[in-house]
Structure formats: C-alpha cells, structure tokens
Amino acid sequence: MADFDLFVIGGGSGGVRAGRLAAAMGKRVAIAEEYRFGGTCVIRGCVPKKLFVYASQFPEHFEDAAGYGWTLGEARFDWPTLVANKDREIVRLEGLYRKGLENAGARIFDERAILLDRHTVRVGGETLTAQKILIATGGRPNPHEALPGHEHCIFSNEAFHLEALPRSIAIEGGGYIAVEFANIFHGLGVETTLIYRGKEILGRFDSDVRRGLHEAMEAKGIRILCQDIFEAVEKRADGRLDTHLKSGGKMTFDMVMLAIGRIPNTEGLGLDAAGVKTGVKGEILVDDYSRTNIDNIWAIGDVTDRVQLTPVAIHEAMCFIETVFKDNPTKVDHEDIATAVFSQPEIGTVGLSEAAAAKRYDALEIYRASFRPMRHTLSGRQEKMIMKLIVDAASRRVIGAHVLGPDAGEMAQILGIAVKAKLTKDAFDQTMAIHPTAAEELVTMYQPSYRVRNGERVE
User: Fold this and answer.
1) Could you tell me if 402 and 347 are in contact, meaning their C-beta atoms sit under 8 angstroms apart?
2) H or E element that contains 160
3) Digit-coded pLDDT (tens) for 369-415
4) Catalytic residue among 119, 376, 402, 435
5) Which residue in 247, 279, 253 sits closest to 266, CA to CA?
6) How far apart are CA 52 and CA 168, in angstroms?
7) What would the mean pLDDT of 151-162 be, rounded to a whole number?
8) Which residues pair with 127 in a beta bridge?
9) Sequence-ordered alpha helix ranges (H) in 121-280
10) Mean pLDDT, the chain, as a whole number?
11) Is 194 exposed, middle or buried (0-12, 13-18, 19+ CB in 10 A)?
C-alpha cells in the first residue's frame, strides 16, 4: 500500500488548492514546497505586484486632487517602508496557505521533492510512495543566458527586493510583466525606458487598447522603443550599465530588467526517471484533463505552459479533483478567460481581439467608444478611456470585450460572465445603464462603429 493517496509537488496556488481539497475529502495527502507556500502569485507575482501598482499611482492621485479643491503638502515616498509592508502582507498570506493545508490534514514538507519512478518520491531524507502524483512547480523568468551581460540584469523576482530604487531603468519586454513594471517604476519616480522587439506592446491583446496604452504611457513620460532589443549589457566601473541595441544605439542606465517570458520549472524533478514527457520549452505535456503520458501523474499550472495565470491554475486544480477523486471527468476549459493588465491606465479584456475574431468569423460588428472619463473632468487629466465590443454579426453574440481605463480589470471580471455565458449584443442593449459611470458605455453603444467582413474593415 502506498504511503499517500496523493503527493503534490509544488506549493503554489494550484498545488495548494488541489492538496487542500483532496485532504479535506479524507485522502492521505502530502505536499512538498522547497521555497515558500503561495508560489509565484503570492510570493513574487500578482499580489506584491498589485501592491506596488497601488503605491505607484499616488503621485497622479495627488495631482488630480487639486482640481477637486484639495491642497496637499509636500509628498515624500520611502521605498524601504513599502517593501517592508509588502513583505509583512506576504508572510500573512503564506501563513493562511499553510494553515489551510494543516487544517485539512495534509502533511507538509518544506523540502524539494524528486521523482524516482512513477510512484516514488524522494523528499528530504525520506523515500515515499504515492498512488497519484500532481506536479505544480510553476515557472520562472527566462534568464536570457544568450545575452552577453545578462548576469548584470535583474528579473521580476529581484524587483520586489531592491535595496533602493535606481534613478533610471530599462526594461526589455512587451508583455504584461514588462508593461506593469514600467508603469510601477515610472510612478515611483524612476526614469523608465521600455524596449520591445515587436511592432507594438502587448501582443495578442486587441490593437485599440495596445495603441491606447502605448500613447498614454508615452504621455506620462515613459520612453518606449519598439522593434529593438539588447545585444549586450556591460557594467561600467561606476556600476552603471551600458546597453548596446540591435539598432546600433548605445544607452546607459542604472539598472536593466529582463522581462522576456517565463519558462517551466521542470529541471531536476526526476521526470525522466518517471517517464514523463516534456515539450521543447521543458513544459510538461498533458491532455485535456491535465494527465501526463503516465496515467497516475498529472500536472497543472505554469509548469504545463498552457495559460500562465493564477486563476487558471486554480481552475485546473478543481478539474483535477473532480476527475481524479470525484469520479466526474472534467476537461479544463481555457476559452474566454478574462484577464487584466495592471498598467496605468489599466487594461481589462475577455474573449477575442478584433484581429483574432476576424480570422474566425465571416462578419463582425465592432462597437467602440473613446472618451475622457468623468473622474478626469475636474482634474484636467487628458487620458482617454476606450471600450470595445466585438460581435459576431450572424449570431449577435458578444465574442470579445476590451476596456482601457480606470477600473478596467474590475469591469473585465463582470464582462467575463457575460461573454462566457454567450450573451448577445441584444442582452447588453436591454440592460439599463448606471449613471453616471464609465461602465454604462458598455450598454449604451447601440450602433456599430464599423463592420468587418472577410477580414476587411467596412465603414
């Protein structure tokens, strides 16, 4: 008889959810985490990032207050205070993750676990067996070791623990991590440059919100250089960094951050010993139920390199529990996932972009509004808000919704329900508006701004 019914390798959001639920069902569960419980999201991702976003927004709040009659004294920012308060919150959350596992009856190992074969795990000084194994070890920043001088750069992990803010920083990358940190550092007073190899930041997002955010960031003073990359980074005697660009230019910064993708944490796990197959990036290959090619081993979350989002890992964990322990085979559904970029202004999105929808549907109706939100009218801030609905002309179903502006992430969460439920544009039109709100625009765009047929725009 095996020592455990389930052995979970990895204590992030997905692994903890699966382990806690299985243990609460009376299963004998063990979970191993070599660093800290909470994974990327809690320890070095979503949670501390959002706290930093909040901190970086205050300068604009202070500026806007004047238009509403407030007179403020001199504002001073203290980076060590923010870091210390952030760390205290992370410790609290990690404690909740541990407590949940302990209360459910799971056995916790603060050690690295390595597979010896399909049923055997070595953790610490013990060799243990499990009927089923779940791998949820997540991912990490791509170290970009091919870049000469990469050792002089930081990654998103280190950004949360800097001893002091630099005077200037260059961030290479155009995904949500790069964009969010560019806004964070700029908001905290750092001279910020974003460098991206693509034609426009935030690939795969809708083109309108991509362009809108790019323009807003540059208006704030963030320098954005597209279609360029670093070819080398050299450290000077004074500690500053000289960067050499593919375009031939040379620029000097106090700090360089690389945010050019993430890779799965699969090295040294013993996957070969267990016979588990991986892909070209090292990702664990799984089927629609998160099962690997070994029938008693599953994998969820970023280690599978499907959709790298915390709620997705949790959803995959829930499907795993239904399939494996509740005799209810449940496929993972990766369609119409709402997501947000906590840039400044925010992006909230769900469903298909206009470009993606045009490839899938013969005819589209595009509803688009651009306006200055009411909160900016007295402050004098000129930032525009963009709202966009993508509608399949044949069925009238809303297949994409995209928002750029204040609270866009909150709107996208609610819009996610409507898009997931396959509601039509008629349902939006029949919904009463809440006035005055920015979100009312989503239910008052009665006429399409333009149409798309066979991939071509028709006015």
Assistant:
1) yes
2) none
3) 999 999 899 999 999 999 999 999 999 999 999 999 999 999 999 99
4) 435
5) 279
6) 17
7) 96
8) 122
9) 156-159, 176-187, 207-220, 271-274
10) 96
11) buried
The pLDDT tens digits of the residues spanning 438-457 come to 999 999 999 999 999 998 99
Q: What proportion of the chain, given as a percentage, has pLDDT over 70?
A: 100
- The answer to whether residue 459 scores a pLDDT higher than 80 is no
Among 367, 376, 368, 365, smallest CA distance to 407 is for 376
Residue 339 CA to chain centroid, in angstroms?
A: 8
Asked whether residue 428 carries a pLDDT value surpassing 90, the answer given is yes
Q: What burial class does residue 337 get, using C-beta atoms within 10 Å of its C-beta: 0-12 exposed, 13-18 middle, 19+ buried? A: middle
CA separation for the pair 334, 308 (Å, rounded): 11
The rounded distance, in Å, linking the Cα atoms of 115 and 375 is 55
25, 153, 183, 241, 281 from 149: Cα distances, Å: 51, 7, 25, 9, 23
- Cα separation, 306 vs 302, in Å, equals 7
Whether 435 sits among the annotated catalytic residues: the reply is yes
Q: Nearest Cα to 204, choosing from 313, 79, 339?
A: 339
What's the number of CA atoms in the CB half-sphere (13 Å) around residue 266? 25
| Residue whose C-alpha is closest to residue 180's, from 343, 417, 387 | 343
Q: What's the CA gap between 272 and 309, in Å, rounded?
A: 27
